Known about the structure:
about 90 residues, 2 domains, about 5% strand
Amino acid sequence: MNAQGLTVNYRSVPPIVGVANKLSGRSDTADRAAPACLNGAYFIAYKKAEKEKLQSAFQSMLDSAQVAHANAVVADPVTGSTNGEAAKKRRDKE
Length: 94
């Protein structure tokens, strides 16, 4: 029996496979296409005093990636609140 290596990644998008290839010295390919817009989930620890600074930086990142603010959410795992809920309440009042 001859062993054959897997060279096609069926789960990851091309940029992730590219990073993995650079780290591992491999030349795998991605089966999936890159999404039409940037997306993902991120966890960032921050100090309470710097919350506004973090939100401003996040909004700048959204703008750079051309992601509508309505398509993004910042969630606080401690309180369970999200900026999406606050935005919805503001829209409901209008």
